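Batch job 17 of 40 flagged for manual review because the log was empty.
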Amino acid sequence: MIVNISNSFAAEWSVTPRVHFGGQYDDNRTLSTSTTKEIAGSTITPGVSFNRVNPNSAASIGARAQFTQYSDNEIRDTNVQYLIFNTHYRPQPQSIWRMNGSLRRDTTITTIQNVDELVDETIVDEDTGEPIDTDVGLVEVEVRRNRLNVSPSWQYTWTERTSLNLSYGFSTVYYSDSQGADLVDHRTHALDTSLSRKMTKNDNLGMSLHFSQFNAPDNNTDSDNISVNVRYGHDFEQDLKGNFSVGYRDTTTTTETTENTSGGLVLNLGINKKQTRLTSYNVSIRHGISASGSGRVLQSDQLNVRLRSRLTARLSTSLDAQAFDTKTLEGDITNADRVYYSIKPGLHWLMTRNWKINGSYRYRRQKRELASEAAESNSINVSINYTWPKMSASR
């Protein structure tokens, strides 16, 4: 949903309800190498988006709940809920405050797809995309997972060419009834500061300092990480941007009995093309560290691809692909050392202004370093979606 800012100082309030009815089939839902089992299910997913926009600020809140019933009585039905919010406020022309956050109650196996549809994407900075959830496929049992993320930030433009950015991120993950699943509650604090300068009309150069702290109280693990990065951004066209950053990190991990220090490269590469009449895409590559429910800090290499293409006025296609390779920093081999990737092509037909049919196929593959064989999964998802006309008012 796109909200246009009017030229007046009045704020526009809008509400957009939606509901999805879907069916799914998966021949290996838990990504197991030993007990593969075909399963089918039906879902209903109600959701709603609230938006407020005026010339100096914008706020968006999205809520969605998904209820899934499976054909096999031995598989427990699931329900997951997401609440996501984004906001920004510009008190003066050279200063802007942002606050992003989410509360997600899903499971280690069941998540809501297309979470980005919950909020108005027009108020989100395209360079602040979240890293891949590297705990996907970590365990083969379904455990309730609760995740809270809050990230305030401030940007100040000193001159037409120079700007300062400060941001803080807090994340906490805790599990319900995780006994026997080898999952550990954990939380992360992160602080970033960066200085950037526009060198030319299309080129931007910057430097950033990052500090993060990972804590898993249940297994007495603490990890401190600090890194320095240099960033370069280039605007190829008005709607096509690229960015590249490289740096070095120093990480210290402490347990009850040991202390381990390691260093390594930090790399981020991304390209983003905003929606045009025909296509949009986002590609990102990351090399760095990430927190995990395994109770460890992992070295991860990540690839994330999102592509949307319109074939006709009513018919469009999509392609979502993710891949990551994770390893424990301490050097010992654990169940979290693995290579995972998924690819999901989709087809979307807009029947009317409010009704839409989606269909997709997803292939997943995971190879653990401790396992002799890889696990594979094939799934099909079909849904019919209804979005109510936006209800808005200005005051």
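Reviewer: the log was empty due to a logging misconfiguration, but the result itself is present. The chain is about 0% helix and 65% strand. Unflagging and moving on to job 18.
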